Amino acid sequence: MSLRGLRAALREKRLAPERLPALLRQAPLEPPAALIEASLCVHELSKGSYSVSRPLWDEISRDCVPLMSRVPVQNLTLLINALSARAPTATWLPSSLRALQAAPVGAFSAQDLCLTFAALARLSFAEVPGPLLARLLAEELPRCLAEVQPRGLAALAHGLSQLPPPHQADARWALEALAPRLASCRDLRPAELALALDALSRVPELGAESGAMRKLEESLCGALEALKPLELVMALCALARAQSTPHPPLAEALPGAVQRSFQCLPQAELCIVVHSMAKLDLQMDLLPAMLAHFSRQSSAGEVSLDHWALLLHGLAKCRLRSTQLWAQLPSTRFPAPPVPLRTAVRLSLAAAKSDVKLPELRRLMEVAAEQPEDLEDEALAALVYTLAHPFYADRRLLLRLLQLASPRVFAQSMALQMRVALLALFQEGGVATLRAARILQGAEAATRARADWQLPLRPSAMQSDVHDGKPYRPFTREIRETLRAYADQPLELKKLFHLHSFIEGAWGNSVALHLMVHSVALGRGGQCSDACLGTGFS
Fold it and tell me: Considering the entire predicted model, what is its pTM?
């Protein structure tokens, strides 16, 4: 049987895929048309309707290597896209990258670029030479972008959004051009909607400015039932990453979509789902069932530290402390540095929120605190919170982070977080030091310009402790009188956290932290006065 006959037989399900490797080995001896047919056969086989074992894909990928340098660019990109989804990269990726680099300028069509960027993003751009990416972005993409068809919009945007940092700025203009087209495209498939949301969520200001995120969310609302489980995970993660309040009908429908799919998910994806739902403040009645499904799976030892951090951080945001899950996180799971900063911060914050004492976390926190310039504001606020907790208190690191944070206070949440940390230092030393007071005064000066803080974005998961998403509310007479009753009692560091939890139930996070500041000022007999704190409270 010829390769052309094999492709027809594959489409009609009349022939097993096991015949393909033998025919591929003969292809280099055939005319050029046979090489093209071979690439089309591999592309056909990569579609999800076929059941192909991993060893068979290994064999196919080895047999494709001689074809890489001999097929046209159009068929080369088909091969790369097919193998990137199915086969291990060691056997075929080096040959395919050399073939891409050897392709003449102008040889790529719009479809070729869509397939290439989609495949390379699937591989996280591992081992892709920088000059090749620079050439595709500077020479091929400007020529082809306007010709991209609706079927390729989402794949191209998704690939461009995941470029390595050195090339992200070079792709920004293309994402700006694609965003309105994605928003206006009414025939995106469910999987393409998930890809488009994921792409725009990585450049949140772009999705917000163009209105594309909101329009895609509205389209996704009607396509939830058609999403495959992993596509749903991608959409949830994208919505959580965007840090905006999702479209209300979509927020109501998402828990039902998760209920239909979560039993098909492996443990790593369950961790992502729990974390994303917690960040989005979705209805969480499914949480016990998801945790039970997580525990029933036998591969708990294979869950990475990054995914454990997502799960435990999500549970902490839901105010659920799972002793059983924390017990499954032995010290052997903590690799030697470098640990990803996000993972270190999430685990530390989850432990502090859950009142879990884990000595191994101190090393992770020290690693994160030693790189403060690399911390985003929300991560910095999270570390400040953790270092003020009794289990993880570290005066030296806390002062260092506060000094770094004081010029970066641009949000009410960060200012409130700093107040809590400084109060912890005051309680530890018994009196407000001039150094600490100056740090707090700097934070107050940066935030005093506006009496009401309008929060355009919902609080991130790492800052949810310090505000509830509502504008600042001034003290009322009732709150001040209630606070004076608590101010008569001596406060220790751990009581500071208990007081926060108690008041929070009545007035919310923001008010609770303001009250704690005022409480210590009243209870110190002038040692820690309002003037010293710079709070301006009367």
Answer: 0.77
